[in-house]
């Protein structure tokens, strides 16, 4: 069932993204040759009018192929008015930006539906999804060691910490053991030594055990968005999309500036794992997860990186200012750089996914 829930999630995201490109291309008079869910070899296909609709073998993506997208395509005089490359900048930009916009539309539809049914949409504060400390318990090992509210724990014993749960697990497994903790406090990075106190509690398997506690608590806060009626649900849905988009931009900014560990990033393996967990709980968390990932996909696609939608929009903006497109040589080099960066990012998030999902699974099922 895990594969099924993951396939529905990825399929929904890809379908809406490509549907945006497809609909706007048709609206502005560009002929669409292919509409594919997935990449690689064709599994199923049917041609209707000018467009061949495909289901391809590799489900991690999809594409819309308009006529004349490749500058090297040979076109007849009759085809040129319907080709992507011969359209004015604003039409090409509209086609490109429609993909991310439709991902936001998907999130809006999900949020609005839940709000209309009186379910709340919760948007956490950025601090509540990081390792930032909210409170330090009086008389605790953390207070004695010098931890302060607002400190962000970035590493323990030389190992980078990805999130609060991982950090808590390290402290829990280390009762009575001295730990070297790296802390970010404002613009400073400090090294603090702390020894977790031994307490009776539950280990990660839910069994009674002696665990370590240092006496810190996580900031759990955020905005709860609710709708008074079905009529106000769309307005609140827009608010929910806006606030989740702002949170995503804040996370991207902190990752770029180094104020948040890049190891918090997740990729397809983490998404599959989280989709399965959410689906087990019920429709609300599962669909909410789809909405949040759809917003993330929209924001990331709009980053000004060549080969992403945002990269294309950047080139269109330059073309509009110059009143002529960039040379083919510059475009080829830029796209190669963009593809290299994208592949490196994919490799990195898969590495992160392996550490977060595969390694713990191996430890639980094989090594134990």
Note the gap between the termini. 25 Å
Structural class: alpha+beta
Question: What quaternary form is this?
Answer: single chain
**Beta-strand content estimate:** 15-25%
Number of helices: 9
Q: List SSEs in N-to-C order.
A: HEEHEEHEEHEEEEEEHHHHH
Main sheet strand line-up:
6-5-7-8
Which radius of gyration do the C-alpha atoms yield?
24 Å
Number-wise, the strands total 12
The shape is elongated
Written description of the protein model:
The protein is an alpha+beta fold. Among the domains are: 100-117 and 227-368, no CATH class; 128-218, PDZ domain (Pdz3 Domain, Roll). Helices cover 49% and strands 22% of the residues. It contains nine helices and twelve strands. The protein has helices spanning 2-27, 89-116, 141-145, 164-172, 233-257, 268-281, 283-301, 309-322, 328-367, and strands at 32-48, 51-66, 121-124, 133-136, 152-156, 159-160, 179-185, 188-194, 197-202, 208-213, 216-218, 222-225. The strands form five sheets. A four-stranded antiparallel β-sheet has the order 6-5-7-8. A hairpin with a 2-residue loop joins strand 7 and strand 8. The longest helix has 40 residues, at 328-367. The chain is elongated and about 80 Å long.
């Amino acid at each position: 069932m895990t594969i099924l829930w993951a396939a529905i999630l990825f399929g929904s995201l890809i379908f809406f993204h490509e549907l945006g490109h497809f609909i706007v291309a048709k609206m502005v008079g560009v002929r669409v040759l292919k509409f594919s869910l997935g990449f690689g070899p064709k599994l199923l296909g049917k041609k209707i009018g000018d467009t061949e609709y495909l289901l391809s073998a590799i489900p991690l993506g999809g594409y819309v192929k308009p006529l004349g997208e490749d500058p090297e395509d040979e076109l007849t005089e009759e085809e040129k008015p319907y080709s992507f490359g011969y359209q004015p900048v604003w039409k090409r930009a509209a086609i490109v930006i429609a993909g991310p916009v439709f991902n936001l539309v998907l999130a809006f539809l999900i949020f609005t539906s839940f709000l209309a049914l009186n379910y709340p949409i919760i948007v956490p504060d950025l601090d509540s999804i990081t390792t930032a400390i909210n409170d330090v318990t009086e008389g605790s090992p953390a207070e004695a060691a010098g931890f302060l509210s607002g400190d962000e724990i970035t590493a323990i014993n030389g190992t980078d910490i990805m999130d609060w749960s991982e950090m808590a697990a390290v402290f829990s497994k280390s009762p009575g053991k001295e730990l070297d903790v790296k802390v970010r406090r404002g613009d400073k990075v400090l090294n603090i030594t702390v020894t977790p106190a031994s307490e009776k509690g539950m280990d990660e398997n839910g069994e009674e055990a002696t665990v370590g506690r240092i006496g810190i608590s996580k900031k759990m806060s955020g905005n709860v968005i609710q709708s008074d009626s079905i009529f106000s649900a769309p307005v609140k849905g827009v608010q929910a999309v806006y606030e989740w988009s702002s949170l995503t931009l804040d996370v991207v900014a902190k990752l770029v500036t180094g104020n948040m560990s890049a190891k918090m990033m997740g990729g397809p393996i983490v998404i599959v794992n989280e989709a399965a967990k959410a689906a087990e709980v019920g429709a609300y968390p599962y669909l909410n997860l789809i909405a949040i990932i759809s917003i993330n996909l929209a924001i990331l696609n709009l980053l000004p990186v060549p080969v992403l939608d945002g990269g294309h929009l950047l080139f269109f903006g330059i073309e509009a200012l110059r009143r002529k497109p960039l040379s083919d040589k510059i475009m080829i080099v830029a796209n190669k750089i963009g593809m290299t960066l994208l592949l490196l990012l994919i490799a990195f998030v898969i590495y992160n996914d392996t550490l977060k999902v595969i390694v713990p699974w191996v430890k639980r099922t094989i090594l134990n």
